[in-house]
Write a structure and sequence with these properties.
14% helix; mainly beta; five-stranded mixed β-sheet; Immunoglobulin-like; Cupredoxin
């Protein structure tokens, strides 16, 4: 009898807690729709509304495909699509620390502040003694959640080169299983992430100026990667790429983006010794 009562009381407590969570969620949901739509971050086909953004006049954001902001951006913007080929080399594309990832990005688009980072966080997980993903491309200013989904403690230790040529280090700390911490990079750079407790763990943050990038994957068999960067405002840009070991054979290429059209641009990456000297 006593046990039953306790169960009932727990059930009632749970119901109250759940209704409180629902009430809070509803209150939040009601607040956001009147905000203006910022941009389509990270090429996601989702509407990302952020307060104070002036990029479009979407006053009733629906956060989905039908959002007027997305439709307008698609009509107004163009895309860049192409292939990344390897010159005189092959890479391993299997395994947690493979060489399959190529970050393709546009160097300068618009003015500072034209494309605020998405309000939703990016994620770097730690699971099975592996950082997931191995390469995380992220817009500067976007919050990154650093998860520990293992049964063991993990540490995140950052390494990056300064403009002076020196290497800077930053220890973000060590945390327990189930704990998530956050970090924000304010400047574009390439950062290596390590775990001091598990020396085999490594990941790369490629921090970029704007949301016009993608992480292309090299196919193991063909050794070619395909990419598309969408919703780009019309203009002339420089297309660049980052790979953890290979470099662009002839440097960044110029691309002209026109509204509603797909510009084609192929890139070749290779070992440093084959990179064309300027
Ligand atoms: Cu670790």
């Amino acid at each position: 009898m006593i046990r039953r009562e306790r169960m009932l009381r727990m059930g009632a407590g749970l119901a109250i807690a759940m209704s409180m969570v629902l009430a809070i969620t509803n209150a939040r949901a009601q607040k956001t729709p009147m905000g203006r739509c910022a941009s389509i971050g990270d090429q996601e086909d989702k509407c990302l509304c952020a307060k104070g953004a002036k990029a479009c006049g979407c006053t009733a954001c629906t956060r989905d495909e039908k959002c007027a902001c997305i439709v307008a951006a698609r009509k107004a913007g163009g895309s860049v699509t192409g292939k990344i080929k390897l010159y005189r080399t092959r890479v391993k594309t299997k395994g947690a620390k493979s060489y399959k990832d190529v970050v393709v990005y546009l160097e300068k688009v618009g003015k500072e502040g034209d494309f605020p980072p998405p309000p939703s966080p990016a994620r770097l997980d730690q699971k099975g003694l592996v950082f997931i993903p191995h390469v995380l491309a992220v817009q500067k200013g976007r919050t990154i959640e650093l998860l520990n989904n293992d049964n063991d403690k993990h540490n995140v230790y950052l390494l990056y080169d300064l403009k002076t040529g020196k290497t800077e280090t930053k220890n973000l700390g060590t945390w327990k299983p189930g704990v998530t911490r956050t970090h924000v990079f304010k400047e574009p750079k390439v950062v290596t992430a390590l775990c001091k407790l598990h020396l085999e763990m490594a990941a790369y943050f490629v921090v970029l100026d704007n949301p016009f990038f993608t992480v292309a994957k090299i196919d193991g068999k063909s050794q070619v990667a395909s990419f598309t960067i969408k919703n780009i405002p019309p203009g002339k840009y420089r297309l660049n790429a980052w790979h953890k070991r290979l470099k662009l054979k002839t440097g960044p290429v110029d691309v002209v983006v026109e509204a509603g059209k797909a510009a084609k641009a192929d890139l070749t990456i290779t070992k440093s010794k084959y990179v064309a000297k300027k």
